[in-house]
Amino acid sequence: MKRNVIFLISCMAVFPSFGQGKFGIDEFAAGRFSQKSVGGVLSMADGVHYTAVTDDEVILRYSYLTGEPVDTLCDVRKYIGRGTGFDGYELSRDESKVLLKLNSKPVYRRSALSEYVVADLGRGMAIPLISPERDDRGQVRYAALSPDGTKVAYVLANNIYIAEIQSGTITPVTSDGVLNRIINGIPDWVYEEEFELYHTMRWSPDGGRIAFTRFDETEVKEFVMNYFVASDSGSAEQYRKGNRAAPEYPNTYVYKYPKAGEKNSVVSLHVYDLGTGSTKEARLAGDTEYIPHFDWTPDGELYWYCMNRLQNHLEVFLGIDDPALIYEERTPTYIDNVGPGTITFMQDSRRFIVRNESRTGYWHLYLYDIHKGFRYAITEGDWDVTALVYAGDKKLWYLSNERSGLRNDLWTADIKGRKKQRLTAGDGTYRILPSEGCRYYVSYFSSISVPNTVTLHTGDGKLIRTLEDNSELKEYISELSLPKKEFFTFTRQTGGGEVSLNCYMIRPRDFDPGRKYPLLITQYSGPGSQEVRDRWSVGWEDALVQQGYIVACVDPRGTASKGEAFKKSTYGQMGLLETEDQIAFAREMASRPFIDAGRVGIYGWSYGGFMSLN
Questions:
Q1: Of the candidates 218, 146, 160, 215, the residue with the CA atom closest to the CA atom of residue 183
Q2: Which of 159, 291, 517, 541 would be a feasible disulfide site paired with 177, CB 3.0-4.6 Å?
Q3: Integer Cα distance of 433 and 5 in angstroms
Q4: Backbone angles phi, psi at 552, to 5 degrees
Q5: 115, 118, 117, 91: which is closest to 104 by C-alpha?
Q6: Is the pLDDT of residue 287 over 90?
Q7: Please, are residues 77 and 91 in contact by the beta-carbon 8 Å criterion?
Q8: 579 sits in which H/E element
């Protein structure tokens, strides 16, 4: 077996609580490792200002040029009062109104039942979207301002409504929504969990139409769960009315849940015209099982994706009356990460950029034309474009792992992929929020040695200002004797040839090579996942290291950052190759002289729990 140590550095931010610079699980559980950030950042329409939320729930307007606050856009407490749970906001296009999301109660992973208030900044008024006097059916699942800021579309009890802000007039768009039968404007459980959606309703750019999906889950079988604790969970009816069950009695929750091979919801796509009050249904492809995404082009044409149940055939259509096929993709396995980032229309509404993995075996960007089809590849190489950050008419910005599968960087290039330039300087993991037009961007960066650092840059990468550097956390780090985290590769022979796997190991700072340490292997191992990454993290495993354990992790076959063939090698045989790699890794680690081979364990959650049982 080959071992190639490629990086060694101090890792975890901890706060001393006992012993010489050590910490325990209590500190982790108390959230003492939390990193500060800059939240609620939204680019304003002019592209030179952005908004962010302060700890006091004030939405400030900032200048991208200086990073300094210019004025107060909205004092949230003025409109909703103190003690009200503020969970998010949306600006109207003219930025004269703010839709405030309040007192949210989670439904599933991404959805919530919430209250909404429109803050009319010009008049200084707070306008509740739903009041008990007008409607006693409970909280709203989703709401969105119209582009002109005069209306709000929302989903209540599986139906879509439009409220005119000034008059208070409410117009129903649908009326057939029924719990566990028909859903309008929000996804069923499958779409929320697997396609990562929390709403399926979108205003057209001119505000004259609303596109939405309808889910008929009548034939989907029900699943029943009992909650044996007092909580907000329960039946949907109990949930809406806010009832609580005593702890000694379970809450019962019944919902539609299709298991593998069972019937899915029947999904359809519709467009409601506010001018005529009429609704049209889109004509779908013959083998359509899923509509994982739809949206409007900048000039107001509807486009949508159709996929079959095996998810190895994707078609993209444009136009509601006479839909045209503008993109098609097939693969013998499956098409991964289908969503908003699959297709990005340019401002001329004729050209669009596709992020595709199956063409070369790596995620890359390609230019297409709605009339001429494929034009050319924008990026190429044995590495992945992990995200298209922004696409202008002549220039684009994207994140890629070109330099290392453990890290990513922000790059810019012209629309043909030329004049390529790396804009980020650090070695680690980046998340980028661009301004409108990408004249500026906000960067969120971390590595295994640097906690979250938020910086403001011009579009060409020049640093304007550091918005958050977690200096207090760094000061604590300097006082500690931190565990060591090292990245390395583990190479093994398989029936398909040699494979190289990315790994990490965390050892105590006072590591003694002459001692035998118990080993805990932590992993997730699910398709397209990645645990071995150069980013800041802290967990209970790090507290365990303080107690004299060694923790290790390997990303087996089926995970990300090594190309499509590596990731999709597990297709049709989930759990087999991953288990082989985990066993081989455990054996290799146990052979090291400082590991107690009689005390090796493995842990995981979700897919990693399945792997642990394997």
A1: 215
A2: 159
A3: 34
A4: -135, 160
A5: 115
A6: no
A7: no
A8: helix 576-590
